[in-house]
Specification:
CATH superfamily: Nucleoside Triphosphate Pyrophosphohydrolase
Strand content: 35-45%
CATH topology: Nucleoside Triphosphate Pyrophosphohydrolase
Radius of gyration: 14 Å
Order of helices and strands: EEEEHEEEH
CATH class: Alpha Beta
Structural class: alpha+beta
Oligomer: single chain
Helix content: 10-25%
Length: 131
């Protein structure tokens, strides 16, 4: 049986109503596709704690508050992911790709112009409905 990976994901929206995307490195699972930043929830961490840590490590943002947005369980052929997605609108700092990944702020209505991993589709649907 394949391991289920618990991932904290941040849908980060700035004051201009743009959302932050990061491009996965080509050598990673679902490489070359765009995603909402985040990472694995470590043992003993809450989703919020993991998200605050990951967003600092990955895109250099200091998150002050998150709110639950949507949970997604998705099975890829090679792994199962549980995505705990939080909305992040209260943060400080300038987003940069700390790990050398490309990051960009995108208008919500332009999200369909980007290629995302299959598991991200429900996030896009909900965002496009709300905004």
């Amino acid at each position: 049986m394949q391991k289920r990976i618990h991932v904290a994901v941040g849908v980060i929206i700035n004051k201009q109503k743009k959302v932050l995307l990061a491009k996965r490195h080509d050598h990673l699972h679902q490489g070359g596709k765009w995603e909402f930043p985040g990472g694995k929830v470590e043992l003993g961490e809450s989703v919020t704690q993991a998200l605050i840590r990951e967003l600092k490590e990955e895109v250099s943002l200091d998150v002050n508050h998150t709110s639950e947005f949507i949970d997604i369980s998705h099975d890829y052929p090679d792994k199962h992911v549980l995505l705990d997605i939080h909305l992040v609108t209260d943060f400080t700092g300038n987003a940069i790709g700390v790990e050398g990944q490309q990051v960009k702020w995108v208008d919500i209505d332009a999200l369909n112009d980007y290629e995302f991993p299959e598991a991200n589709k429900p996030i896009l649907d909900k965002l496009l409905t709300l905004y």
